[in-house]
Amino acid sequence: MTATTPSVRRQKEPDRPAALGRRQVHAVAGCYFVASFAALGLPPYLTEILPELGDRTARWAGLLYVVPTVFGALGAPLWGRLADRFGRKRLLLRAQLGLALAFVLAGWADSLGTFTAALVLQGILGGTFAASNGYLAASLEGPGLSRALTLMQGSARAALVVAPIVVGALSPWLSPHRQYALLAVLPLAAAVMLCLLPEPGRPQVRAAEPVDVPLPTATPLRALYVYEFTFVFSTVISFPYLIALIEDRIPGISPAVSGVLFALPHLCYLLCAMQVHGRFVERPRLGIALGFGFIALGLAGHGLAHSLAAFTAVRLLLGVGLTLGLVCLSVLAADCAKGRPPGGMFGSLEFVSKGGAVAAGLAAAAGNSLLGPAAPVLTGTAVALGTACAVGLPALFRRSTRIRIRVRDRIRWSP
């Protein structure tokens, strides 16, 4: 008896509506880029903002840095499920308008309590990344979706590189605190742009013919969630104390050079992501294993680097791992989105991702206080290396088993 794929007899439905065009996908990515400017560009300046609000030594900067992340993680699954029920475009617009409201409140806050409440609102009402991914997944699938998710990650990397530079350039004329209110214009502009985009979804069925349609089999989510958590943890753990590590190893280095070293992995992604997508779209697990391997090498190199050339080399190694990991996780996420409500899935994925970032921040703070600025990168090395082995070794074992079986069969049937 042979196993058969279960099927149901139901009305024949047409294919998905025409996929979003390139301009529309780029518009969604552009909206995320401009809306995330304040969210990504202003937190590095919390040590300058908090003294204006009464915290003279900025001792709450570390805690407030992760407040939007924590509350964003808590709210992401709920907003994702609501998007599946009430419409992805509506919930994406809600996220942009929620960011604008939170930024205005933060920019006009006159006390630490009000500013903290604004950051809480930013986390709860935001979630533009997961909302944008859910919007794209409702109209795209397969390689088209993974390419769009890769572009979305490029928007995040670009904002992470450009936004702090722009905020710093504006600081002589407008304090970073008041820039929150100014930059609230950006998510409002993104909301206006999104109003011009269509609502993704299946069209109404006119004619119906009963046909046997196989039930879709969804890719298990556990592996995606584990890879996402460990990837975010092993990369983000190096962020908070990287500048301190560089200044400790290379005394007298300029802040501009330190900033370039910080940005190198993200620039690597911007330059190479689409080429990597083309090479690994059919084998994402191989790319994930290689990505974790390069991340482990790059982070381990941080513990040994004592010169500008060495730090440049290890940051580029980390950039290769970051690019491989992000691209191949996008491919795996696109595969997992088949047969699932995209809002709920990407909301849960965002919860896992932000959980990894929060855990990385706590681990980095604990390691730095106990062993110094090199401890976070060594912790990240151990996590990345363990994940690379967990992903890669079973595949190598299965491949070697298949090779042995082929060789044995050839010997058995050879004359």
From TrEMBL:
Top-level taxonomic group: Bacteria
Transmembrane segments: 25-46, 58-79, 91-109, 115-136, 156-174, 180-197, 224-246, 252-274, 286-304, 316-337, 349-371, 377-397
Subcellular location field: Cell membrane
Domain Major facilitator superfamily (MFS) profile: 24-404
Coiled-coil intervals, chain numbering: none
PANTHER family: MEMBRANE PROTEIN (PTHR23546:SF1), TRANSPORT PROTEIN (PTHR23546)
Record-given protein name: MFS transporter
